[in-house]
Write a structure and sequence with these properties.
single chain, about 80 residues, mainly alpha, rod-shaped
């Protein structure tokens, strides 16, 4: 009986060690996945900033074109009145 209890305790200790190693491996795996995503995240962040700048430039150009269109309309109305 004592041998069985001792063997059971040894197995329980080994199981605890295995569980601890498994948790450690899972933690490392998650960290590696996060680290693997960092370059992609940095690239996407740069692309997002570039897209925002391009969009702001397009809005600025649109506003300028709208102003120019309004001036042309005003000039046309003036010519019609004359």
């Amino acid at each position: 009986m004592a041998a069985v209890t001792k063997e059971k305790d040894e197995i329980a200790a080994k199981m605890a060690i295995i569980c601890k190693e498994l948790r450690s491996m899972k933690t490392r795996e998650v960290q590696e996945k996060v680290e693997d995503c960092r370059p992609q995240l940095a690239k996407c962040t740069v692309e997002l900033k570039q897209t925002k700048v391009a969009m702001e430039e397009m809005h600025r150009q649109r506003d300028l074109l709208c102003e120019e269109l309004q001036k042309v309309k005003d000039d046309l109305d003036t010519l019609r009145c004359e």
